[in-house]
Specification:
By secondary structure, the protein is an all-alpha fold. The protein has one domain. Helix 3 packs across helix 11. The longest helix is centred in the first third of the chain and has 24 residues. It starts with 11 loop residues before the first helix and ends with a helix.
Amino acid sequence: MSTDVTQMEFPLREARKIVKELQTPNPTIYWVDFMVSNIIGWAAIWMATISPFMSGMQVAGVLVAAVALYRAVIFIHELSHLKRNTFKLFRFVWNATCGVPLMVPSFTYAGVHIDHHKPQIYGTKEDGEYLPIGIETPWKLPLYIIVAGVVPIVFAFRFIVLTPISYLHPKFRELLWRHVSSLTVDLMYERPESTKQNDRTWALQEWGACLFGLAAIAGFYTGVLPLELLGVWYAVEVVIFILNTVRTFVAHAYKNPGDERMSRTEEFYDSIDVPGNPLITPLWAPVGLRFHATHHLFPSMPYHHLGEARRRLIAELEDNRPYLYATRKNLFVALARLWKEAKEAQREVKVKPAE
């Protein structure tokens, strides 16, 4: 008789021993990976800007820029996990050349993401990165992609217009922090005041984004910057947010209604690895995010060790079935399973009243 894997306790202690020496980040890998991605991204934005409208060259430039800058911007995930007061120069350069120009400075994710990894918060209604989309109507999924087209405008307005206004009104400032200062999937998420402590430079980042936006507007108004650049910037931002939305769909199974805490084993079984094709998958799940279940096992493990950790766990765990349960073959398999399980959950909800 086969054993239901989800009823097995995940061998976390054994897994930790197998990967214990893979916890140290390599600064050289961080710098080279980020800088190459960032330079390619901004160069492609400029190429798209000077290319004829809707030409093949412009479309290619937007796509290359989106993929490259998506990889660069996803380092915000690594920043949230790196120990405080480490990688100081890297954090500054990331914010100055990527986070601020794209209107997503690192404080918008710091704290919010760490809460996502806390056992008492993961999967509950306090988790801004979790919604029970795996048990709700699957027709909600396209709505999240539509929202991705609005997010860049919302964040630009938040930093350029609302930031200076908020400093004149303390209560409005509190509202801005709680409701429009976080990169989350839950649009109703209210950010707690305590998350300010996770990135003590948040005020500098906030004003940096504000001043950058105002300088860009001045540049467009005076003709120093071509207006085409604004359109390209927006198109690149939309593609980035759509890619991240799709990636988020397959990061978890999203089966917890949010009323109860989940155990560490339940959290792992609710998380997903999509190893996929080593060349294609990192384009939509960059910087180690295709190993998201493994990341939830070892949140502090740097992204460049996650692939090796996965190989070791598959080869060395006494029983690797619990670990492999969290694996989906590729993006399409993961999306199809999410859609199927959401439909099945909805059918069960409709049947229950008749019982």
